[in-house]
Amino acid sequence: MTSPGLHTAFAGCAYLVVYVLPLYVLPRASEAAALLGLTAHGFWSSVAQGLGLTALLFAGPLAYRALGAVPAHGPPRHVSRRSALQVLRDLCLAPLSEELVFRASLLAFLRQRGLGAAAAVAASLALFAAAHVHHLVDRVWHGGHSVRVALRAAALQAAYTAAFGLHAAALWTAGRSVAGPVAAHLACNLAGLPPLGAMLRHRQAPLLLLLTVMGVAGWARSIAWLFRRHAW
């Protein structure tokens, strides 16, 4: 049985085929490709920016991994425990389909229709978060968790999802290429949620906490700068 998340990814791909392609790609392919950020122009710089900004956000967890707290080689534990279909969803289908839908299509569409930059980003974040509500249902119905525990986990994931949505929106705004958001999405899914509890119990906890705070602060300043400089 496929998971609800896989259904979401397939639904995103179906949206692209049924809605985006007929309206944009078929009549004016080159214009549509530029609108969706599917051109080669700025591809590698967008990827580098996406991965660099993601590494800054994950400065603490990356240092935690570098200190040998988790195996330095091989996939992260949360990836190795998943089925091949789930890995395909998280590392291929979800990054590509969700970034094409929520950033390349939705965010650009809202701005073209005259919505302000802040309002357009907020609307795309709200819809992006709503697309992940199925995790709450999955924890209760399939995971056997109580509603209270599931709500607590869902609140944490909602905050993480909102932060990533802002992250991806800034990358899209800066580069107008889907490559950066897709690369960042893949990296975040590969990294998973930061192991804050384990980091605080580590013998180098003060250093890890400092790196985490500095990384998040640097990320927030970078995001604000990207929006100020590249708002369109």
Task: Please outline what is shown here.
This protein is mainly alpha-helical and 232 residues long. It has helices spanning 4-25, 29-35, 43-57, 59-66, 77-80, 84-112, 117-130, 134-141, 147-175, 179-191, 196-201, 205-230. Helix 3 (43-57) runs antiparallel to helix 9, helix 7 (117-130) runs antiparallel to helix 9 (147-175) and helix 8 runs antiparallel to helix 9.
Folded structure, characterized:
The protein has one domain (about 5-70, about 75-230). With about 230 residues, it is mainly α. The chain contains twelve helices and no strands. Helix 7 (about 115-130) runs antiparallel to helix 9. The N and C termini lie far apart (about 45 Å). The longest helix has 29 residues, at about 85-110. The chain has helices at about 5-25, 30-35, 45-55, 60-65, 75-80, 85-110, 115-130, 135-140, 145-175, 180-190, 195-200, 205-230. Helices cover about 80% and strands about 0% of the residues.
Low-confidence stretches: none
Oligomeric state, counting identical vs distinct chains? single chain
- Class by alpha and beta content: mainly alpha
How large is the radius of gyration?
A: 18 Å
The coarse silhouette is globular
Fill in the keyword field for this structure:
Rce1/LyrA-like_dom, EC 3.4.26.1, mainly alpha, metalloendopeptidase activity, 232 residues, intramembrane prenyl-peptidase Rce1, endoplasmic reticulum, 12 helices
